[in-house]
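Let's inspect a concrete specimen:
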Amino acid sequence: MKQLDGVIAVIGLGYVGLPLAVEFAKTRKVIGFDINAARIAELQAGEDSTLEVSAEELQSARHATYTADLNLLKQCQVFIVTVPTPVDTANRPDMTPLVKASETVGKVLPKDAVVIYESTVYPGATEEVCVPVLEKFSGLRFNQGFYCGYSPERINPGDKVNTLTKIKKITSGSTPAVAEAVDALYRSIITAGTHKASSLKVAEAAKVIENTQRDLNIALINELSVIFARLGIDTLDVLEAAGSKWNFLPFRPGLVGGHCIGVDPYYLTHKAEEVGYHPQVILAGRRINDNMARYVARNTIKLMLQNGMDVPRCRVGVMGLTFKENCPDIRNSKVVDMVREFEGWGVEVVVADAWANAEEVQHEYGIKLGVVDAARPVDALVVAVGHNEYRHAQPSELRVLCRGEKPVLADVKSLYDRHAAAGVGFTVFRL
């Protein structure tokens, strides 16, 4: 196959698709497509609400066109699909966005085009789920009339150091020639280089285990934090001591949410169960991590009760709702589970976040963002996300946000000196 030098379509302009479209559009024509008209409007105005791409970077993408008009895609020869792959309420893979995107591409797919998927899926999904949809809506045959590639995204939302071009990219193709062409395409923008996988399935599997491995490592530390709490040992003290060994992995306990680590393992376990194997370790890790938000809330309630508080008449402040620090991404935020647990105890919860979009939070979770301040003090304070605005606060500054003689501070990320916090009157809990 010759080089993929035609017009590129990027389907889905979120955290993954937009940086990709911008980078390619610095040197070649790109059509960025999204069904969200508001998203298209903001990009056309030179703004990115995800904060992944700056206004200057958007301007540098001089060959980019952002549209919701399907007809404009008919001029494209390369289609890169970057839509999300969530799970449903039963933690089963929800392939709907991927199927809909494949339908969209199939309707405009020209002969000999290449469709590259970047969405995280289980091994085999491209050929088993996406290809039949492309064939149905295009009328073309796979590996005869069109071809496929898979190059999993490795975007780390909010990270301004490990950006798209600086992260090595896995590539693959449905034939050896297509694999080479796809690899060359990404090599043209990825300065960190590429790794050409031996097949689509291998590339799919490599992506899904990246986050599964991280999920399990965090689950181990989370479980250790539960054990250490019962033993009266501070987890951070233990980790710092163990970390003095050169090969100890520096994982920390915490809430595991977001669009990747808290979701991707379910794609692998789903496929494993389809082929007759029930995963033990992976699902155990998922159960631990999925319950940590409620664990934090219940331990905060426990300390409030021990301090003599009438919990149903108390007010708790929760600082931070996004799934990670210094990032507006609220997808699959486990802080929401914490809020629900507090509400189940009859507690009034005030949720604040310096980065989240209030309208998006209200729409997605029905939570109205507020302000935690001295004018309306709380009985317990949960610092759930390590935004810089919270990380740099002093325990004395947090104390003025609380009322009563024995307020509780739940320092989920261990941001503060626990002795200093106790010194200003806090009863401290941290993972």
User: Anything to note?
Assistant: The two ends are 54 Å apart (CA to CA). Residues 248 and 371 are 40 Å apart (CA to CA). The chain has a mean pLDDT of 94.
